[in-house]
Structures are given as structure tokens and as C-alpha cells.
Amino acid sequence: MVACGRRFGKTETGKILLTEQALRGARCWWLAPTFQMSGQVWRDLKALVLGTITNVTVSETEKRMDFPGGGMMAIRSTHVAQNLRGMGLDFAVLDEAAFMEPTVWPEVVRPMLLERRGGALFLSSPNGLNWFHDLYQLGLDPMQDEWRSFQFTSYDNPLIAPDEIDNLRRNTPERVWREEYMAEFIADSGQVFRNVRAAASILSSGAQPVYGRQYIAGLDWGKENDSTVIVIIDAETRQMVDMDRFNQIGWELQRGHVATMCAKWQPSMVWAEANSIGAPNIEALQAEGLPVQAFTTTARSKQSIIEGLALAIERGEIGLLADDVLLGELAAYTLRRLPGGGYQYGAPSGLHDDCVIALALAWHGVRHGGARISFA
Ligand SMILES: Nc1ncnc2c1ncn2[C@@H]1O[C@H](COP(=O)(O)OP(=O)(O)OP(=O)(O)O)[C@@H](O)[C@H]1O
Ligand SMILES: [Mg+2]
Question: Is there an atom of ligand 1 within 6 Å of 339 CB?
């Protein structure tokens, strides 16, 4: 069981061990949680093996290589675990194991190792306290002499300069950092925003504009049953000064609400979600002379604004209105790590995130002013 930080060298270690085993005549499997990851490893291993070893037979359809001495390696993705059936194995590598279904090891891989008393190497960054954590605990127990556990952080890769990892830390929320880079096992609530209560320092929503101050707005359009939300932040004090939520009153009336907020606060920029219904509404507001900047939400751009907001709240750099709906949405907002290494942010199903997005957009505006940001 090897719990490692990102970029430690998990995949590289696995490829080296797998090749060594196959050269010694072992029958081996490489398992990855997604088709995309198994495809990458297949290409890498093929290049490595075919570039150094002669008389290897390759089957592209099976993603399998047979070695002259009887050894074999096959690459598999575990995303459809039922399809994973095979013969006895001597060795299996489970890369990013913590992102595989809990059934893969006990129901598929372990039985295949039984008859030949095969071994397995689990490589992963932790993913909460799931099955990978349970097996890792097993390996820490000296009485369990068939299991051993190791833990390495991203800093343990001597080929990566420590200051590059330090840089990553500055832009990574604490929980993600500890789990993904320090390889710590932490209870996975999936919660994104921490210290929300401490940041919710503004109890009254009766603030009035102060002459000479710069205000930035964030605007998220309601879809179907959601609300449209506009949030105003004072760019100087970094305090949220106003928020308005409304729904199901027709787009023209909704734009009217936005225009009223703008008339009051005179924001230097309104960062507005541009997807689907956003675009025509943004054009209409711009036509009225409002300083509206379209923000196109992609997985990447969303990650950026959400992590920016999470860091600010965590560090107490932003003051929030103690609004129950807003605080509820912040508390429920979750992060799910995807097997390929990316993240998915969102409200749990059935809950809304309009206030969160409007706030994140306003905060994005405070940090970046009116400049256009490219996420390419
Ligand atoms: N033994 C090694 N020899 C040479 N380079 C290595 C070795 N181990 C790792 N590296 C290099 O370190 C980097 C990270 O390695 P690798 O992709 O294996 O890490 P990882 O832990 O699987 O990362 P990720 O979390 O992104 O999957 C790569 O550039 C790889 O080439
Ligand atoms: Mg890897």
C-alpha cells in the first residue's frame, strides 16, 4: 500500500515494477480507474518495452504484451468492473487505487491472485477514509505480515523543485493540499468552504454605498427552479455589502432588479455567468449601458473561482453577510475528486448554488478587477 502525493512518481514506480516482473516470467495486470488513464499507461509501457526488449508479442485489442520468457502484462481500466475477468495472476498494480470502486480489489483482483499466491501494489493519493485507507491501516499493523504500507509526499520526489510545490500550495485549498500533496488521510466530508461562520461577520444587510468606494458585483442567472442572485462586494474593505435573490418573475423583470442594484451601488464591473440564458440577458444589460462582463463557466474556470473564494474565506480575507441561504449553500457545497485527477465542484443534488456562484464571481472580480482572464 503506497499513499503518495501527486507527482511523487506513483505511475513511474508501477511501470518499472511491472516490467521487472514480466521480464521474470510473471503474469501481470495494470489497473487504472479510467479508460483514459489506462490508455496513457498502455502507450507508455509499449514504448518502454518495445524499445528495449525483443520478441515481445503485442495485442492492441487486449492491451496485452507477451514476453519471450512466458511473462505477460495486460492493461485494464476498472470503470466497468464486471468486465474484468481473467486467469491467475502473479502481480497486479492498482494505480490511483483509492478512486476505484471498493469491489474491484476483493471481488475481482484478489481472487485472481489466489492460486499463484500473487502480489499487488496499490498506488494512490488518499481519497478520504475509504477502502484504500482500510487496507493502508492493515499494512501499518506489524502483525499483518503480508501487508506493508508506505507514505510519501510530493516533496519526496527529488526531481521536482520544492519551490514549485510551494507555489502550488498557495493556490490550493488546505484540504486538497493535505490530501493530494501531503498524502494525508482525512475524513472526507467533501466540504469546500471552511471557517464560513467566522467569515460571516456582517450581521446587518442595511449597508449603504460610500462615495468614492469601488464596488464589484457577481451575478448568477437562475435556471429552472433556481434563483437569480446578485452579490455586491466593496473592493476596498473586501466586505460583502449586499445581496439580492429573485426568481420566476420573467427575464425583463429580473434584469430590472439587477439594474436597480447597479443604480444603487454603481459597481465598476458586474461579473455575470454567461452560459445558456446568461448570454442574451448580458447583452440586454450591456445595451442599457451597464458594465457587465461575461464569465464563461467551464470545469476549469469554475474550479479557479471556487478555490479563490474558498481560500479567501479560509484565511478570513473576505467578510460575508450572515444570510442563512448563503451560509447554507456554502456549508453544503462539495468537491468531488475525479479519477483522472480533476475536480468537480457543485451543490449536492437537490440543493442550489446560485448564491455561491454569484459570490465567487464577485470575489473573482475583486481580485482581478475588470481584466479579462483567460483559462486556456
Ligand atoms: N524513478 C524515476 N525516474 C525518473 N523520473 C521519475 C521517476 N519517478 C518519477 N519520475 C518523474 O516524476 C514525475 C512524476 O511521476 P509520475 O507521473 O509517475 O507521478 P505520479 O505520482 O503518478 O503523479 P500523478 O499524481 O500526477 O499521477 C514525472 O515527470 C516522472 O517522469
Ligand atoms: Mg500517476
Answer: no
